[in-house]
Specification:
Distance between the termini: 63 Å
CATH architecture of the largest domain: Sandwich
CATH class of the largest domain: Mainly Beta
Number of helices: 9
Radius of gyration: 33 Å
CATH topology of the largest domain: HSP40/DNAj peptide-binding domain
Mean pLDDT: 81
Low-confidence stretches: 77-119
CATH superfamily of the largest domain: Urease metallochaperone UreE, N-terminal domain
Structural class: alpha+beta
Number of domains: 3
Order of helices and strands: HHHHHEHEEEEEEEEEEHEEEEHH
Largest sheet: 4 strands, mixed
């Protein structure tokens, strides 16, 4: 089967910025992740989105794809994708068919009702926060502490909403059932609908005296001080999930989850692509001709790099093992250094004579430059 165009997969055009590409990926990855979307084909679409992002988020792979299409990405080993941690969104709490009709029509349908009542617990909402980390912290891992707001069960009434146990009484309207039935006469016949009790709001009990802390809501707002461990080698754009760190549910429902989006700050001299690091190095023309040893900034500190004699402009030299630790698995990436050769704009009289002599020589014998620039 032919692969779809990567831009089409992410729903963007070819002029999309890196930020727009990342935004489109995050949205679709969450939409189609198998843990969130149980529809047939969701997992296939999720992998397709991953593959598209892997290619379009990398400048080299994107350039190759733009020029040669899918064939241009084969040399990069494209198509592996990266699965961000979006596990655990819960969409199972959808209720019965009667509850769906109740949302739209105010009761059960066709005279049928469920055996339960509307006092059903509802899971709390998921929360999402963005956390920025430094370039080197993403490489080697770190611990990050931040504050965020969420709703939690009231510590005073433990979610009941009442001042104490004696402050509750059974609702006289629904006799504690939380629902009331009524008959509606229509031209199609009589229909029985079952709706939430208007007096107790479906709770089955009425609060005589509200909890002073939550004012009868059973839930209070709280600022959570939360610490997370950032694993080494974490890529930009990954989302980490923390169970039950979201909002509290109502009527005894569980907590939602917290999703932390990791944003990695850029470095002024280093660029990261996967596990590899990229940088540039300015080299004097004579150093490029005769060779030299230069200091290069790496994520492991300054390291020596040998510039071979005869190095050409825009040459890329590899520093093996000088990249970051792999996010998954053992080992490290490499560092790649692009050489920029500096041509002097002004020459002294002596320098000009030397360069003129070089220009006039047709056949340069081995060892000539060693003596010329010593």
């Amino acid at each position: 089967m032919n692969k779809r165009d990567y831009y089409e997969v992410l729903g963007i055009n070819k002029t999309a910025s890196a930020k727009e590409i990342k935004s489109a990926y995050r949205k679709l990855a969450k939409q189609y992740h198998p843990d969130r979307n149980k529809e047939a084909g969701a997992e296939t679409k999720f992998k397709e989105v991953q593959e598209a992002y892997e290619i379009l988020s990398d400048e080299r792979k994107k350039a190759a794809y733009d020029q040669y299409g899918h064939a241009g990405t084969q040399s990069f080993g494209g198509g592996q994708g990266f699965e961000g941690n979006f596990n655990g969104f819960d969409f199972s709490d959808m209720g019965s068919i009667n509850e769906i009709f109740e949302q739209f029509f105010g009761g059960s349908f066709g005279g049928f009702s469920t055996s339960g009542n509307s006092n059903r617990s509802v899971r709390g909402e998921d929360l999402e926060v963005n956390v920025k980390i430094d370039f080197l912290d993403a490489i080697f891992g770190t611990e990050k502490t931040f504050d965020y707001k969420r709703r939690v069960v009231c510590h005073n009434c433990h979610g009941s909403g009442a001042k104490d146990s004696s402050a509750m009484k059974t609702c006289p309207t629904c006799k504690g059932q939380g629902r009331v039935a009524r008959i509606q006469r229509t031209f199609l016949g009589n229909f029985q609908t079952v709706t939430s009790c208007p007096d107790c709001g479906g709770q089955g009990q009425i609060i005589k005296e509200k909890c002073p802390e939550c004012n009868g809501q059973g839930i209070v707002n709280e600022v959570e001080n939360f610490s997370i461990k950032i694993p080494q080698g974490i890529p930009d754009g990954v989302t980490l999930r923390f169970k039950e760190k979201g909002n509290s549910g109502r009527k005894g429902g569980g907590y939602g989850d917290l999703y932390v989006n990791i944003e990695v700050k850029s470095h002024d001299k280093l660029e990261r692509k996967g596990d590899d690091i990229f940088t540039t190095l300015k080299v004097d023309v004579t150093e490029a001709v005769i060779g030299s040893i230069k200091k290069v900034i790496t994520v492991h500190g300054e390291k020596d790099l040998e510039i071979p004699a005869g190095t050409q402009p825009e040459a890329v030299l590899k520093m093996e093992g000088m990249g970051g630790p792999k996010f998954r698995g053992d080992g490290k990436g490499d560092q790649y250094v692009r050489i920029i050769i500096e041509i002097p704009k002004k020459l002294t009289k002596e320098q000009k004579e030397i360069w003129t002599k070089i220009h006039e020589i047709k056949d340069v014998k081995p060892g000539f430059f060693d003596g010329l620039f010593s």
